[in-house]
Design a protein that fits this description.
heterodimer; A: about 525 residues; mainly alpha; three-stranded antiparallel β-sheet; two-stranded antiparallel sheet; 27 helices; globular; B: about 400 residues; 13 helices; 11 strands
Chain lengths: ~525, ~400
């Protein structure tokens, strides 16, 4: 309909990568590429304040003053391109300072784990019962604190990173390739899992995500592949890899495929010993032993027999079998469909239009699983524009959007109350026990009990959001204890988009805390 | 407004909150049957719970994790010539079994062969034929509530004690849900609640929101009475037992169809035997079930049936990591103060000896007692359903009458 808003055609990965690595000029060179006129996408003239808020509420973790200004300045087209192909962006100094101070930031994961393992062994060896119990409890507290830091870091970035789409995709992939800290062994590992297996590839290639998540110790422990060995098969990882990570349950693979894939995965495991010498192996196999950080491929545990997966033989032998199998899975049309549909459920609608999913899947196949290209096709679609404001916020989106709206760029000093709200609503990061990850549809989050919890959280944030700015949990709240939202420029920006019933409710507020509670509890805030 | 408006709510749109509440939660008829379904998500290892102690093959197949025979050190408790019970539930489930308030249905389950937790759980909750078109928005407990509610003589109040409304209770009949593990102080008073509910009038969240405020009130009251009763027990209950006691308080007074799920059963590695990880899960679950029975008081317990189900069983053989992988047939539990003499304290349903040859696909328990047939038979006896009514709950399935009640 208008030529104003369009994207450059999907760019080859190598090019995109160069840009990611900081070649600023490439951005502007590409900006000149003309795309086809697009139906369903507003021209700048029609792109008013309300439309801006809607796009922000969907593409970011929630509209706030800063993102509103960034979008207004850049225009939708350039702003979206920047979101799809972000250059490394800086967090506000205060947020970065908090992250830098975390234990998960100060040590590489293998050193961290070696240290913890040594501590656990020392603690277990203490003969005095009371002392041993105390030492083991301290060790457990340390693990719990690593999980808390992982959640704090995630929340700080979701709240304040300029690369909002990237942050949304980090959550999405962490949920797609779910691991759970309720399986104890993963607690020291989730921070690195997010940082090294998910974050660098969240807008990159699906095949990269698949390979890095599979080999990460957090996943190998979570889905028990660390225990999977020749003649002692453990099918868990293989099954979920087919069912949840790639093809999907009704796509035609068989129990035999699960077992064959489990055999492919034999020998991939984890070695938590700092000073482990390479194992003694027959000379023919010795060269195949791999140890990278905590990851280990142990040839003596691998099944070197012939294998067939999805009707085709696996030709490689040893660790290379995994790459061959993952290539096959990543390029299967069923995977393109499953991933595209899931992206559309996250970003468009609980029941996304089939035609849109098909178009996204076609881009996925054509681009060899380039996630940014698939998302771009989605953003360009009339279905996306038509869906704005109609996607129910899950608890993570509800809570983070609330804090972004209420306090804007003023960086919280204590993010724990926010984590507590997310926890109360039942969606703590890496807290979903089973590998399917959290549901992303309204049905899963809008029941009676859940709505009443949301309203209590609206009250907590709207009435005493100052809990987020305390230096210590017991310290007195600053005054006033509620956010500076009512009567603010952001509130004025928001007001035209509120319905008459919500305005009636706001008019009944007798105090700023009530006004904030009603606004945050309003139907409009439940959707993005 | 960014909302999908539906017409069906319009009738309620103008009604004040209290009136809507009355419509949503009529009190159940006194003296009616009560049903609680407990779903063990993750597929519990039934063969280490109801132990096939007569099967030599069981002991061959599980050299490192088997529960020893009755009489041996840390052995199973003998239930009959073929079966024993895990020692972790000796103080909880065993006494109920011995009083005739508990029965087990081994070789129970579905025809679903995906061995996928999620696919099979969804399939069971829908309770519809695997072949043909399924309605993904209609769970079998919701259809049961619909059938019971349409009979005119009594209203029915279903409630899921979970933080989300589970598939099994989704559908046309009104169903509520609220998790009971963490109930804090109420933060929204009645007046502000009215204002908030007002914003949702005419939207498709209106019912959810109105119900939420009422439920919050109900649960608060249950927790209050629990606190005033706290002196009775020396230590305050935790975990599933706490939830179970609260469920009993609410079901005694308020709700007549309940659902709860318990996770943590997917034991692919190091599951332990008579002690260890799985044993402590059994212990906690058993303690909760016994607490529920106790808290229901005699009269209500006599009219209550608790069914414990899981999506499938696990491999009969232990795997390479002292755990078990996804299997097929499982063991259902049926508990209640009014079980029949033919069922209470017995192992019921079709059974077979467990040898290598009798395993399904040489790895799992076969399914001899299809779950819809078993539950259809149970509901028919509990509620006196007509054939047409049962057909609305489980279409096209002949009921299996195990004479459970």
């Amino acid at each position: 309909m208008h030529g104003k808003f369009s994207f450059p055609p999907a760019t080859p990965f190598s090019m995109r990568r160069r840009r990611l690595l900081g070649s600023a000029g490439a951005m502007f060179a590409l900006a000149g590429c003309a795309g086809k006129p697009l139906a369903g996408v507003p021209a700048d003239a029609a792109f008013d304040e309300r439309a801006r808020l809607q796009w922000l509420d969907r593409v970011t973790w929630g509209a706030d003053e800063t993102s509103e200004e960034a979008l207004r300045r850049a225009g939708l087209r350039a702003w979206l391109r920047g979101q799809l192909h972000p250059r490394p962006a800086k967090l506000p100094a205060e947020a970065q300072r908090q992250i830098d101070a975390m234990a998960i930031s100060r040590q590489p994961v293998d050193q961290l784990v070696f240290g913890l393992e040594a501590r656990r062994k020392d603690a277990a060896a203490i003969t005095d019962t009371a002392q041993r119990t105390a030492a083991l409890q301290a060790y457990q507290r340390e693990l719990a604190s690593l999980v808390r830091e992982t959640r704090q870091r995630f929340a700080l970035r979701a709240l304040y990173s300029p690369d909002q789409l990237h942050e949304q995709m980090v959550w999405f992939w962490g949920n797609h390739f779910n691991v759970s800290v309720r399986k104890g062994a993963t607690r020291a590992l989730v921070a690195d899992y997010e940082e090294s297996a998910i974050r660098p590839y969240a807008l990159g290639r699906f095949r990269e995500l698949l390979g890095h998540t599979l080999r990460h110790p957090a996943m190998l422990l979570y889905l028990d592949n660390a225990r999977n060995a020749v003649n002692r098969l453990n099918e868990n990882h293989a099954r979920e890899l087919l069912e949840l990570h790639t093809l999907g349950v009704d796509s035609g693979y068989s129990q035999a495929d699960v077992q064959e894939l489990a055999r492919v995965l034999t020998g991939l495991g984890v070695n938590l010993k700092a000073d482990a010498a390479p194992p003694k192996l027959p000379p023919a196999r010795a060269g195949e032993y791999v140890r990278e950080g905590l990851f280990e491929f142990h040839p003596a545990r691998h099944d070197y027999g012939a294998k067939t997966l999805l009707g085709q033989p696996i030709r490689a032998r040893g660790l290379a079998e995994v790459d061959e199998a993952l290539d096959r899975l990543a390029r299967a049309p069923a995977t393109a469909r499953l991933v595209s549909r899931k992206l559309a459920v996250y970003m468009v609608a609980d029941e996304p239009p089939k035609a849109l999913v098909e178009r996204m899947a076609a881009v996925f196949r054509r681009s060899d699983g380039d996630i940014a290209a698939v998302l771009q096709a989605m953003f360009e679609s009339p279905e996306f524009a038509a869906s704005l404001g109609r996607k129910f916020r899950d608890p993570m989106h509800y809570a983070i959007a609330g804090v972004r709206l209420a306090y804007g760029t003023r960086v919280v000093r204590d993010v724990n109350p926010l984590l507590g709200w997310i926890d109360r609503m039942g969606q703590p990061l890496y807290g979903h026990e089973t590998p399917d990850g959290y549901a992303m549809v309204r049905n899963a989050w809008a029941s009676a009990g859940q709505m009443s919890t949301r309203f209590e959280i609206a009250r907590a944030l709207g009435g005493s959001g100052a809990v987020l700015f305390r230096e210590a949990p017991g310290a007195p709240l600053e005054k006033p204890p509620y956010p500076p939202l009512s009567g603010s420029p952001m509130a004025r920006t928001l007001e035209p988009s509120l319905g008459p019933d919500t305005r009636t409710a706001l008019a009944q507020a007798k105090s700023p805390p009530d006004w904030h509670t009603f606004l945050l509890a309003s139907p409009e805030r439940m959707y993005r | 407004m960014p909302l999908h408006r539906r017409h069906l709510i319009q009738a309620a749109a103008a009604a004040p909150l209290a009136a809507a509440a009355g419509r949503l939660f009529a009190a159940p008829a006194a003296g009616g049957s009560k049903l609680l379904v407990v779903f063990l998500r993750g597929a519990y290892d039934c063969s280490n719970f109801l132990v096939p102690t007569a099967s030599d093959f069981y002991y061959e197949a599980r050299p490192r994790i088997a529960i020893a025979r009755p009489g041996e050190d840390k052995g199973a408790t003998r239930l009959d010539a073929d079966w024993g019970l895990h020692p972790a539930v000796s103080a909880s489930v065993l006494p109920l079994f011995q009083r005739g308030h508990c029965a087990f249905v081994p070789f129970a389950g579905t025809e679903d062969l995906s061995r996928s937790h999620f696919e099979t759980q969804d399939g069971i909750e829908l309770g519809q034929a695997l072949q043909g078109r399924r309605d993904p928005g209609s769970g079998f407990l919701n259809r049961l509530a619909g059938v019971l509610g349409s009979r005119g003589s009594a209203t029915v109040s279903p409630m899921a004690f979970t933080d989300r409304l589970p598939l099994v209770l989704r559908g046309e009949a009104k169903a509520a849900n609220m998790a009971l593990a963490r109930v804090g102080k109420r933060a929204i008073d009645a007046q502000r609640g009215e204002v908030i509910a007002g914003m949702y009038r005419g939207t498709d969240l209106a019912d959810s929101v109105a119900e939420g405020f009422i439920l919050r009130e109900e649960v608060q009251r249950a927790v209050q009475s629990e606190m005033s009763a706290a002196d009775r027990s020396a230590i305050s209950p935790k975990g599933f037992e706490l939830v179970a006691r609260r469920m009993a308080l609410l079901m005694r007074e308020r709700f007549d169809i309940g659902f709860v799920d318990v996770g943590g059963w997917d034991t692919h590695a190091s599951q332990g035997g008579a002690t260890g990880y799985l044993a402590s899960r059994f212990e906690e679950l058993g303690r909760g079930v016994a607490a529920f029975a106790q808290e229901m008081d005699e009269g209500a317990w006599r009219k209550t049936v608790v069914v414990v189900i899981s999506e499938f069983g696990r491999t009969f053989r232990e795997n390479g990591s002292q755990g078990t992988d996804h299997g097929h047939g499982t063991v259902y539990w049926v508990l209640g103060g009014g079980l029949s003499a033919q069922a209470g304290g017995r192992i019921v349903g079709e059974q077979q000896a467990l040898t290598q040859a009798s395993l399904f696909q040489n790895r799992d328990y076969p399914v001899l007692n299809e779950y819809r047939a078993v539950l259809g038979g149970l509901f028919t006896r509990m509620y006196g359903l007509s054939a047409a009514q049962r057909e609305r709950v489980f279409a096209g399935v002949a009921p299996k009458n195990l004479q459970l009640v």
